[in-house]
Amino acid sequence: MGKQYTARLFRTGGSRAVRIPAELLPPGDEVVITKEGDAIVIRAASDRCPTMGDLLADLPAWGPAEDDPWADLPDPLPEARDPLA
C-alpha cells in the first residue's frame, strides 16, 4: 500500500467535497467514483468503452437462488428421441 493521506471534507452547494492532494490527482477533468464495501474509490475517467470483463463483473452471480420457486420444476424441453423410432 502506498502513502496514506488525510483530507478534509467541505460543503459545496448541497454536496460534500474532498480536497485531493495534487500528487494523487488523475489526468483529465473527470473521475469515476464507486463504493466498494465501506471504501469510496476514485479512479480517473477514460473515454474507452468498457471491456467484456467490466460488463461481466457488474452482472449478478449466475444460477437460481436458494429460494427460487421454479428451481424444482422439470426441464420444459422434451427428451431427445430417435427420429426413426
Write the layout of secondary structure elements.
Elements: E1 9-12, E2 15-18, E3 31-36, E4 39-44, H1 52-57
Antiparallel strand pairs: 1-2, 3-4
- Order of the strands making up the biggest sheet: 1-2
On the 0 to 100 scale, the average pLDDT is 81
Helix content: under 10%
Helix-strand sequence: EEEEH
Distance between the termini: 68 Å
Shape: elongated
What structural class is derived from the secondary structure elements? mainly beta
- SS element count, helices: 1
As a percent range, the share of strand residues is: 15-25%
Instruction: Write down how many β-strands occur, each being a DSSP E stretch of 2 or more residues.
Output: 4
How large, in whole angstroms, is the Cα Rg?
24 Å
Describe this structure in words.
With 85 residues, the protein is mainly β. The protein has a domain at 1-46. Helices cover 7% and strands 24% of the residues. It has one helix at 52-57, and strands at 9-12, 15-18, 31-36, 39-44. It has a two-stranded antiparallel ribbon with strand order 1-2. The protein has a two-stranded antiparallel ribbon with strand order 3-4. A hairpin with a 2-residue loop joins β1 (9-12) and β2 (15-18). The longest helix is centred in the middle third of the chain and has 6 residues, at 52-57.
Q: What attributes characterize this protein structure?
A:
two-stranded antiparallel sheet; 85 residues; elongated; mainly beta; 1 helix
